[in-house]
Design goal:
- By secondary structure, the chain is α/β, with parallel strands linked by helices.
- It has helices spanning 11-29, 71-79, 82-85, 94-101, 133-146, 188-204, 209-212, 222-240, and strands at residues 7-9, 52-54, 60-62, 64-66, 120-129, 159-164, 176-184.
């Protein structure tokens, strides 16, 4: 099943967002609520098979698993996958998008630095519509030359741009629209807040009775504590990424 995606929708919130997401995809690809391609939708110009499975009766079926509305969230989910469904000459697979956003360091964490100057690790811009590539290039050059965005000190300013066509079946009030996805070290503050809240609840042993009903937590809560450690390691790595010595991060003795 190459270059195909299965979506998971969990709980009431997940399914409501998923409903809007699939409605948006059907509208963009000219697929009716019954799973039939509309007469005005031309074949071969897009890749419906990324998210849909075409059954023997020619119906398009969402490739999704539902385990249990916000239109803006569904729009973001839709925009982040446009380069997969309307491929261009670059950024036409999921690996290419993720690899540019998340430079993976396999080393182990070291000390923490509370005085953090947060910065961008990478930025991915997906632009839909009628765009002049030369204008995009000039804008990127101006951002880099004037240092309008604070980037990591140990690597180049990674600003990726993927140009994508708009759906020909969905009317839009805007000639150009876009989505920016950024890997920024300031996200660590949210993880720190979650850890602090967890520590308070863990110290008070609040809400633990419900967990004790599960077999995995009958003896202890090591699984929860290990999960907390994983989040802490992620926080440490984001803090380390703000320093020039991040390349050698984790090589020192613990």
């Amino acid at each position: 099943m190459p270059r195909e995606i299965i979506t998971l929708q969990l709980g009431q919130c997940g399914n409501q967002i998923g409903f809007e997401f699939w409605k948006q995809l059907c509208a963009e690809h000219g697929i009716s609520p019954e799973g039939i391609v509309e007469e005005f939708a031309t074949e071969g110009t897009d890749r419906k098979d990324v998210f849909f499975y075409q059954a023997d009766d020619e119906h398009y079926i969402p490739r999704a698993v539902l385990l249990d509305l916000e239109p803006r969230v569904s729009t973001i989910m839709s925009a982040s996958t446009t380069t997969l469904r309307y491929p261009g000459y670059m950024n036409n697979d999921l690996i290419g998008l993720i690899a540019s956003l998340i430079p993976k360091n396999v080393m182990v964490s070291t000390g923490r630095d509370r005085q953090t100057n947060h910065c961008y690790i990478a930025i991915l811009n997906i632009i839909q519509g009628e765009v002049d590539p030369t204008q995009v290039h000039k804008s990127l050059q101006r951002i880099r030359e004037r240092k309008l965005a604070n980037f990591i000190p140990w690597g180049p300013a990674s600003i990726q741009v993927a140009l994508s066509r708009k759906s020909p079946y969905l009317p839009s009030a805007h000639r150009v629209s876009g989505l920016m996805m950024a890997n920024h070290t300031s996200i660590s503050s949210l993880f720190e807040s979650s850890c602090q809240q967890y520590d308070k609840l863990r110290k008070r042993e609040a809400f633990l009775e419900q967990f004790r009903k599960e077999d995995i937590f009958k003896e202890n809560f090591d699984e929860l504590d290990r999960s907390r450690e994983v989040v802490q390691e992620l926080i440490d790595e984001y803090h380390a990424a703000t320093r020039p010595d991040y390349i050698s991060w984790g090589t020192q003795e613990q």
